[in-house]
């Protein structure tokens, strides 16, 4: 009896350790639970990711390629007399890296610069000038280059007059030189938000009194600043004051409606706060 039990135990041991048949392996793989499935091979996973990235890149390139220039360079002639040239390679690379220039709904150039510039391509002060210049150039295509030429020029002159006034208060400075170029971006955004023909304008009242108060505030500022002008020789002060008031006279002529008045006020109070 003892020998019989030993024989049975040996047979059971051998059957448990016998290699699984190939058919059984296939059956187990098919019937495996989701958690038991083998992970996707690493090489195949990377291949799928690369393919997905390529598709995204191609999609982006196809989306922006219609904006590429085909000539050797892009030459931009601005309303302020500046002429800037970008090579074909540089401008097409900029187009690839900054699709925000072609957004359906553009945002203010200050917000656009702060949101989309990472400090590599337009990180310097001069680089920021170029960004605003290109912002204006591309948005002008959307707004209509010729259609709003007179309004654009008026806005640029309004902003430039304010910039010039405060530049004289401060006896110059690099800030005002950079503003001279960035004004192009500000003006083009103003054209974009400007009420167009046929659009309902809620407020059509006479602006004479508001405008008079604004102009008066600038003349008062000239008077107040003159009290602290210790750099101009006494004999030259009258000539300096005359030049400052001439700038305000020009602003008075340029501001002809409520939109231009609000743009002048916003531009001044946003960009020229000092104490």
From TrEMBL:
This is Lipoprotein. It comes from the Bacteria.
């Amino acid at each position: 009896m003892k020998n019989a039990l030993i024989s049975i135990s040996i047979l059971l041991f051998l059957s448990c350790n016998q290699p699984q048949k190939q058919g059984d392996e296939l059956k187990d793989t098919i019937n495996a639970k989701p958690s038991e499935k083998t992970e996707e091979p690493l090489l195949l996973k990377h291949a799928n990711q690369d393919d997905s990235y390529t598709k995204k890149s191609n999609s982006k390139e196809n989306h922006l390629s219609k904006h590429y220039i085909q000539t050797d360079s892009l030459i931009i002639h601005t309303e302020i007399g500046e002429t800037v040239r970008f090579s074909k390679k540089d401008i097409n690379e900029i187009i690839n890296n900054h699709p925000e220039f072609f957004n359906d709904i553009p945002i203010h150039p200050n917000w656009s610069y702060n949101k989309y510039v990472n400090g590599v391509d337009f990180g310097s002060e001069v680089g920021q000038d170029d960004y605003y210049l290109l912002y204006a150039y591309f948005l002008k295509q959307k707004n209509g280059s010729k259609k709003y030429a007179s309004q654009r020029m008026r806005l640029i002159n309004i902003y430039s007059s304010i910039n010039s006034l405060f530049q004289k208060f401060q006896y110059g400075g690099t800030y005002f030189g950079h503003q001279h170029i960035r004004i192009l971006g500000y003006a083009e955004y103003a054209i974009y938000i400007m009420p167009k023909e046929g659009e309902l304008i809620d407020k059509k009242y006479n602006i004479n009194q508001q405008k008079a108060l604004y102009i008066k505030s600038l003349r008062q500022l000239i008077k107040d600043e003159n009290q602290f002008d210790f750099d101009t020789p006494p004999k030259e002060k009258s000539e300096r004051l005359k030049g400052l008031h001439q700038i305000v006279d020009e602003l008075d002529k340029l501001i002809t409606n409520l939109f231009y008045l609000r743009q002048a006020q916003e531009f001044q109070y946003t960009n020229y706060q000092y104490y």
